[in-house]
Amino acid sequence: MLKLENVSKYLGSFYLRDIFLELPDGYILGIIGENGAGKTTLLRLLAGLYTKDEGIIDIDHMSYEEEAAVKQKIGAVFHGDLFDIRDTLRCNARRYGQFYCDYEDRLMESYMTDFRLNARKRYGQLSKGEKLKFAFAFALSHKPKLLLLDEPAANFDRDFREIFQDILRKYTENGENSVILSTHMTSDIDRAADYLLYLENGRQVMYGDIESIRGNYRMAAGEEYKIRLLKDRVVHLEKGEFGAKALVRNFGRPYDPMLKVWEPSIEELMYHMAKRESGGGMKAGRDSGR
């Protein structure tokens, strides 16, 4: 479905470099990383809003040399006023929907009802969360094969976040549609994603299916000296008042029985990976997780 080979983009002083990944049909990819890591830049490249400087982007066996055909297959949700602020939601949907071959007005109306959006309300009168709901509804209504979502859930209320998660699961159930979700809300990645991409300062540090990545790491807690005996397996160690805790590489070797060991959550993985250079752990590099 989606294949990137050595994709790079220069944006002033920022450089997104050498992104390489393959995402099969029917799966959800979660992108994590601190602010400025390159998450939005990558999504904008995939949406065709930016032009790559190097590399290959293949979407459903097509490249952006076939831009019109590629964009038919992509639905995107970005922050910002991407619709006419003076028009109603219904007018906006019909105006922009005509550019998509598979757009269904009845489906859009159904989503607006489900998302509690007033179709007669002007787009400019919406809250930030409502604008993202509308963009999400519109993206779903032209039935794309690839859905690109840039930090939408943080502006959704708790009830709608449950609906959002359910829609993503159903959207990929046919084994043909895929989702790329960029978010700071690591709980959403834990619940929904099948693959994980970790970006840091424009570089790809880690990519692979989540179960394999988790299998490559463990959290270990206990006495500091016992953790330090793991030596080069330690990615990042953090001291506490009553002991220490660390992200460590899991090589299948036994652990000291006095250590508490568990599989890391995405939040724990991201936190310790981001801290590792200052903490004297693993140096930056690509980790496929496969």
Summarize the structure.
The protein is of the alpha/beta class and 290 residues long.
What would you note in describing this structure?
This protein is of the alpha/beta class and 290 residues long. It has 10 helices and 13 strands. It has helices at 39-47, 67-72, 89-97, 105-114, 128-141, 158-172, 186-192, 210-215, 224-228, 266-275, and strands at residues 2-11, 14-23, 28-32, 54-59, 74-77, 146-150, 178-182, 195-200, 203-209, 217-222, 234-240, 243-249, 260-262. The longest helix is centred in the middle third of the chain and has 15 residues, at 158-172. Residues 278-290 have low confidence and may be disordered.
Question: Which features characterize this protein?
Answer:
290 residues, alpha/beta, six-stranded mixed β-sheet, four-stranded antiparallel β-sheet, 10 helices, 13 strands, disordered C terminus
